[in-house]
Fold:
Amino acid sequence: MVAFLIFLGAGLGGLARYGLSGWIQGASGDGFPWGTLFINVTGSLLLTTVYGVLESTAALPEWRAFLGIGILGGYTTFSTFSYEAVRLLQDGDWERATLYVVGSVLLSLAGAVLGFRLASLLLQRG
Structure:
């Protein structure tokens, strides 16, 4: 049942991201990724709000799965990154928080660079 709730929520979140990000990007032009920035910021805001409420109540774990992992995970995974980084900071674990933030950004950028290179190699072979 939990897997189905995550599946359903991720579809809804992905559709929301697609529609909202596309609308914002279309309205603002192609000069800067405003749509993605908006999704990442609002996703972080929404996930921390939802988890803050769910962790402080007797909400069923299925709600966390549907809303957090499903809808907001489909909306943006950046929100999970933000949530986890802030939790490490709130726990006073500055060293791990710094490693997590810097490592996530640098390794993700490196992954993107390698992905472009791999795509270029694959296209050259084809």
